Amino acid sequence: MGKYVAIDNRIDTIKTNAAPIRVLFVVDSTFPGAGGAEAQARKLARALNSQNAQIEFVSPRTVLELPVNDTVDGTPCHRIHYPHIKFIGAGILLVRFAFYLFKRRNDFDVVHVHITRLLATVAVLMRPLTGLPVIAKISGYFEFKGGILDPDSKNPANAFLRSTLRRIDYVQTISVQTRERLLEAGFAEKQIKFIPNGIDSAESIEKLELTSDEADADKDTMVFGYCGRLRQIKGVEVLIDAFSAFVKTNPDVPAKLRIAGGGILFEKLTQQVQAIGLTDCIEFLGTVEDTHDFYSTLDVYIQPSFAEGLPNSVIEAMVCGLPILATNIGGNKDLVNHDKEGWLFEAGDSEALSALMQRCIDEPTELTRFGENGRARIVDTYDFSSVTRDLMDLYRA
Description:
Elements: H1 2-17, E1 21-26, H2 36-49, E2 53-60, E3 69-72, E4 75-80, H3 88-103, E5 110-113, H4 118-125, H5 127-130, E6 134-137, H6 156-165, E7 170-173, H7 176-184, E8 192-194, H8 201-210, E9 222-227, H9 236-249, E10 255-260, H10 266-275, E11 282-286, H11 291-295, E12 300-303, H12 312-319, E13 324-327, H13 330-335, E14 342-345, H14 350-362, H15 364-381, H16 384-396
Parallel strand pairs: 1-2, 1-5, 2-4, 5-6, 6-7, 7-8, 9-10, 9-12, 10-11, 12-13, 13-14
Antiparallel strand pairs: 3-4
Helix pairs in contact: 3-4, 4-6, 9-14
């Protein structure tokens, strides 16, 4: 028995002293940004940097006020400058990214793309010259719906990009639905690796316990909430309609709806709220820096999306112990089992959502059960300890 312990200790020592895995995180959007994929990349970088990995970011310089060379959460970040001219600018960006990969090919062991757009295709095309394996994460439904991985797209450019991406080393899928769509798009089973979004559950729970007492001010009020971008695909209009119907049915029940986030629909949504006369009980908070403070003020979290990859907001709400009302689509179903961590409803059905809000009033003990089940599910399955372990194994592969 003793010799096996000694061998195990020696292996642990080798792992500790081994050269770190050098990973280039490619974020094909404004970075840092407000989206879930951008936030997940930042959190992953922090977690992996503590697991014998060295992470660097590269992204387009979409905002000229941001410097070319920067650090994000202490991690080096290089933004590729390009002229903001339609079509011409995109071409120059791709060429400069290709040159960047070739120039720095000896500085990294693997490329991990976090939003699968044009830069992912360039990384695959450059692989024979750089020798760098490429992993691309499918971060959301938009890559398929009219995007470069949409098998029904008639765009010849998309067809070329899709055929190029099929030569990738691995695709990181974060939901069951995404895996199915990848198979439909012609990717091989062996290329697809299921590694979901993660969260530092211990840190989240600790922060929640240290949050302000703002929630106490609303202890007699049923507070529903949503956190995310204000875009058509997120279904926030449906949420507002459902809440309006709920309030009309329960005029004597104190209730609030808190909406965190920004986006192109902000003005339209505020006008919708004004039109139905609910400005006193529907609050638009804008972008929230500390989501734990936000979740601590809620009784129920609602995700009314028409499509999702694996929503970080739902993961965060669940680890904070909130019951979930979510549409019966995509990554929502991966996280929430109906009648176990919350209730599911059909996308776009405001009447069904309003009825579930009514059940939240009528069945308060169910909310407690959902919250406890949800937190346990996230801690067991989506904690960074398991996510980073799987990623490190993939990088080494």
